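Please fill in the sequence for the structure shown.

STRUCTURE ENCODING:
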């Protein structure tokens, strides 16, 4: 079972999104456990202060290091775990991708740190987080939504969470390509017909068609996933960025 310990100033944001559908069932079935930790609990002084103005000026507020360090140390003491990783959600992180989610799913525990305001004190990066993860090159108001995305993406790799086992290995990005198109009833809709091959029962022809469609979808929509020779890139996020 994977345990996600989420440190946030807004635990209530997680009520709902993590209780519904596949993730909700995964928690009920004990495949994934999610614990929410209110950062305010480790706030400083009577005001339980968690943020302060940035040295050197520049407006906005910055999360102080002490409450975040104290929260992680309390989690580690209260819930000891072996293979774990502390991840800070931030725009500076490596992009959350299929491979990264699969890696995290193999751990016992992941601690997710949700930033707020302008960001966190740099010493959180230097002395607490094992790594940073980003959901994309944009700035959000907080790390909570990215943390939910990590929880959702990672849970799908836990055996037993998705209906048929290995489903996570048969989808977009699993083999570096986008997925082929899906069709379901009705056969004809507003003049648009389901491709005959999908109703042929010829599974080899269907597999060939799907492979071709996946490659074409990737070539037209996400050429960055392919090398110049059209093969699926082995380049990781960082190398891809060079383009
Ligand atoms: C973010 C991202 C993100 C930055 C300042 C929270 C915000 C505020 N996190 N991927 N993009 N975080 O924008 O993960 O603290």
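FILLED IN BY: designer on duty
SEQUENCE:
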């Amino acid at each position: 079972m994977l345990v996600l310990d989420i440190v946030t100033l807004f635990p209530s944001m997680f009520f709902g999104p993590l209780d519904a559908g596949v993730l909700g069932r995964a928690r009920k079935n004990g495949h994934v456990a999610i614990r929410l930790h209110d950062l305010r609990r480790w706030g400083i002084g009577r005001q339980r202060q968690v943020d302060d103005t940035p040295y050197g000026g520049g407006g906005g507020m910055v999360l102080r290091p002490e409450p975040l360090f104290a929260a992680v140390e309390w989690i580690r003491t209260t819930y000891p775990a072996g293979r774990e990783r502390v991840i800070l959600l931030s725009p500076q992180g490596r992009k959350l991708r299929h491979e990264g989610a699969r890696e995290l799913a193999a751990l016992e525990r992941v601690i997710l740190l949700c930033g707020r305001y302008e960001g966190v004190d740099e010493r959180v990066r230097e002395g607490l987080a094992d790594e940073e993860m980003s959901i994309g090159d944009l700035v959000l108001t907080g790390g909570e939504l990215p943390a939910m995305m990590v929880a959702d993406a990672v849970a799908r790799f836990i055996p037993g969470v998705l209906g048929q086992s290995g489903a996570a290995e048969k989808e977009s990005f699993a083999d570096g390509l986008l997925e082929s198109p899906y069709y379901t009833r009705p056969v004809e809709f507003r003049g648009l017909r389901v491709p005959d091959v999908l109703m042929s029962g010829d599974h080899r022809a269907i597999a060939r068609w799907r492979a071709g469609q996946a490659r074409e979808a990737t070539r037209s929509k996400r050429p960055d996933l392919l090398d110049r020779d059209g093969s699926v890139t082995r380049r990781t996020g960082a190398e891809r960025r060079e383009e």
